[in-house]
Design goal:
This protein folds into 2 domains: 122 residues, no CATH class; 221 residues, Spore Coat Polysaccharide Biosynthesis Protein SpsA, Chain A, CATH 3.90.550. The protein is 49% helix and 16% strand. The protein has an 8-stranded mixed beta sheet with strand order 3-2-1-4-7-6-8-5. Helix 3 links the parallel strand 2 and strand 3. Helix 1 packs parallel to helix 12 and helix 11 packs across helix 13. The radius of gyration is 21 Å and the shape is globular. The N and C termini lie far apart (45 Å). The relative contact order is 0.16.
């Protein structure tokens, strides 16, 4: 009976993988026409040290000629300042500013960095973008067009992964974002959720003031999710812009990837424990593999595992094909032999997330609080 239950879980996971591909295809085909000219935009880029492909990611934004880019660091010795200086030389006509300010405003250093940068912003439309975001040409127009829709308070973007290397760790991280997270985010939105995806968040100064400013996020680990929730509470929607960006996967070892994904997992578990538990169904190969020993190596479970592996690979290729329609640079081909390892690693991280609340975030050791949807969780040092 346990083997049968594991097999059912595997089939549910496969159905979700295929449904995620269909959701991505629908998203791509439903992307509407953009409506430039756009209003002036200030892009805020909080930086913390150098990381793989950082200059390439920042340059992709500079090439789009936004009205203003503000980069922020919290230490005058931060090596990211050299990359900003090179970009200022490469793009001499661009309004590109570096703000250096060590003032702390709470536990969340990213929010502290943004609060220090905000006084230098010249425009009312603010785009907060992670340092590792690789932007494509529709980026700014898609944000402005979506934010102009009635009753829109916040705009966010889907993102894929761009591995900095082709190590197994980087490819495993890419597989999770491209083939699990991205389709899962679309399915969640189809079910009515309005999650804010933190790689890019865009809103106006008026909306920011209505939620109490960035200060309301200064003691939150999951600042993106809380920003989205605060905006929804004002009666306005969190919408997806009709484009996709890429984010860098810098990890080169399984240990680095484990720490990164464990932070995500423990944060999500604190915010959404039920959804987090159900996310185990997103990994069909792990369930199909579990069915084999539970059935005492019954031949049908071996056949199920092979069929699940083939279907999982096919779903990944279909998702890659949709991403290629958006832009040739978005998909990364994942070797078929890594797919079982990816699902088993994900289940291991889900289990580890229940074994503690400590997370590591850019050198900080924080504790995720027990967060209910109606409460504010304050992480502690």
């Amino acid at each position: 009976m346990l083997a049968t239950l594991a097999a059912i879980a595997a089939l549910i996971g496969l159905a979700q993988s295929l449904a995620g591909w269909l959701a991505l295809r629908h998203f791509r085909r439903q992307s509407g026409a953009l409506a430039p000219p756009r209003p002036p935009i200030t892009v805020l880029k909080p930086l913390h040290g150098t990381e793989p492909l950082l200059e390439e990611a920042l340059a992709s934004l500079c090439a789009l000629s936004p009205d203003q880019i503000i980069c922020g660091i919290q230490s005058p010795d931060d090596p990211a300042r050299h990359i900003v200086a090179r970009l200022q030389f490469r793009f001499p006509t661009l309004d590109l500013t570096l703000v250096t300010d060590s003032t702390e405003h709470g536990v969340n250093r990213k929010i502290a960095n943004l609060l220090n940068m905000l006084p230098a912003a010249k425009h009312d439309l603010l785009v907060i973008a992670d340092s590792d975001v690789h932007a494509l040409p529709p980026y700014l127009d898609a944000i402005a067009t979506t934010l102009a829709q009635p009753n829109t308070g916040l705009v966010t973007l889907l993102y894929t992964a761009r591995p900095a290397t082709h190590t197994p760790a980087a490819l495993l991280g890419t597989a999770w974002i491209n083939h699990v997270f991205l389709p899962g985010a679309l399915l969640a939105r189809a079910l009515g959720r309005q999650d804010c995806l933190g790689a890019t968040m865009a809103l106006t100064r008026q909306t920011l003031a209505a939620i109490g400013g960035l200060e309301t996020l200064s003691n939150e680990i999951a600042d993106d999710q809380w920003l989205g929730r605060h905006v929804v509470r004002t009666g306005r929607a969190v919408r997806l812009a009709p484009t996709i960006v890429a984010t860098t996967i810098p990890e080169t070892t399984i240990a680095q990837l484990w720490r990164h994904e464990l932070r995500w997992a423990r944060t999500i578990r604190a915010l959404e424990p039920t959804a987090f538990a159900l996310s185990a169904l997103q990994h069909p190969l792990a369930w199909a593999a579990l069915a084999i020993p539970l059935s005492a190596l019954a031949p049908w479970t071996l056949a199920l595992f092979l069929a699940t592996w083939a279907t999982r690979h096919r779903a990944a290729r279909l998702i890659d094909a949709e991403l290629r329609f958006v832009n040739d640079t978005l998909p990364t081909r994942i070797p078929i032999w890594l797919l079982p390892l990816r699902d088993l690693l994900s289940i291991g991280i889900l289990l580890a997330a229940h074994c503690g609340r400590q997370v590591e975030w850019r050198g900080q050791i924080l504790q995720t609080a027990s967060i209910a949807p109606s409460k504010t969780g304050i992480p502690k040092q």
